[in-house]
Amino acid sequence: MARKYIPLNRQWLKQVKKAYTTRRAPLAKMSTLMCTHMTPRAGDLALCRVGEIGHHKRLELTDGRKARLFPGDDVLVVFGNRYAPDQFEALVPDDLEPCHLVAAGGIAARVVSRHQRVNNATQLFPLGIVGDRQPRPLNLSQFGLPAIQVQRPRPRTLAVFGTSMNSGKTTVAASLIKGLVRAGIRVGAAKVTGTGAGGDLWLFQDAGADPVFDFIDAGFVSTYRLTAGEVHEIFMRLMDHLTETGVDAIVIEIADGLFQRETAELACLHHLPAVSCLSGLQTQIDGTLFAARDALGAVAGVQALRASGLAVMALSGQVARSPLAAREAREATGLAVLDPAAIQNGFAAALAGDSRHGLYNIEPVMAAGVT
């Protein structure tokens, strides 16, 4: 059966609230609205009408502003999967029936489960998938950064992992960026995995990183349920583009918990079941910082990263907020436990000094700001 579509009214399109996840899709390409007989794919752009307001009461726009949502609003969002133990697990629906806003950055999906403390998701009524003049569906994969041949040597690269969502990873990465920039190092940054939203990238920019990328720049709205090969391609694509800008150092954040499947595959945690290891992360990363909620999580994370061949330089995150928990983590791992101030000052300064000699030596750090 032929697909039904209608021309998009340009004036209407200008008034639609456009989500952060759509930031790389040019309005000039949006010509039709494909209304029926469509099976959405992750990355497809969609026009939806807002129904009952639930957990997400605001939509992050392409410029980062959080716009208040009202029933009846028309929004431009992207179909995608969501992994968030503290909020929702949600999957791309197989039709254009009502679904949900599952991330403030603008992801449409159907909720599979939610945390008990979280309200029901805001309801969305898809009006159709946005297409070009042909008409063909517009997908974020069409607008990602191209593959390039890297001509420069790879700069020193640090990665931030964590025990879980909200363990403090983004604060750790931003603190590291700020400290290196303050020490005269030009830093590029990327969030390689996660769910499309701009808060982390804006924070990295505020800390002084330039440029800053995320997986949307590689053509993906989220990384949940991607293959190991796709996640590896995102990592390498963003690393290549950061390298070619001539930055002195790269800081990357790996979202969600270390045992989340896509994170585990990127880190190549062999001991976990059903983990496919295609990653060359061990040859690309010079050192890692690990954000933990408590001492037990810190021990498990350090052991897992070391077993996969990744060097852990220090601990941070929520565990650093409690002197007692920090002491337990330090005694159990032998690593420094650093709060944001210690990362920005002693830790980053030591790294900046060593990087000028082509080394990353954490010995000076062990005596600089251990909680």
Descriptive terms for the model:
five-stranded mixed β-barrel; 371 residues; 18 strands; alpha/beta; Rossmann fold
Write up this protein.
The protein has 371 residues and is α/β, with parallel strands linked by helices. It has two domains: 5-141, no CATH class; 156-366, P-loop containing nucleotide triphosphate hydrolases (Rossmann fold). Helix content is 27%, strand content 23%. The chain has helices at residues 10-15, 169-182, 199-207, 228-244, 261-267, 281-284, 295-307, 323-333, 340-355, 363-366; strands at 5-7, 17-18, 32-34, 45-50, 58-60, 66-68, 74-79, 82-83, 88-91, 99-103, 107-114, 122-131, 156-162, 187-191, 212-214, 249-253, 287-291, 312-316. Strand 10 and strand 11 form a beta hairpin. Helix 2 (169-182) packs across helix 9 (340-355) and helix 7 (295-307) packs parallel to helix 8 (323-333). It is globular and about 60 Å long. It starts with a strand and ends in a 5-residue tail after the last helix.
Question: How do the strands and helices of this protein lay out in sequence?
Answer:
Elements: E1 5-7, H1 10-15, E2 17-18, E3 32-34, E4 45-50, E5 58-60, E6 66-68, E7 74-79, E8 82-83, E9 88-91, E10 99-103, E11 107-114, E12 122-131, E13 156-162, H2 169-182, E14 187-191, H3 199-207, E15 212-214, H4 228-244, E16 249-253, H5 261-267, H6 281-284, E17 287-291, H7 295-307, E18 312-316, H8 323-333, H9 340-355, H10 363-366
Parallel strand pairs: 2-7, 7-11, 13-16, 13-17, 14-15, 14-16, 17-18
Antiparallel strand pairs: 1-3, 3-12, 4-7, 4-12, 5-6, 8-9, 9-11, 10-11, 10-12
Helix pairs in contact: 2-3, 2-9, 7-8
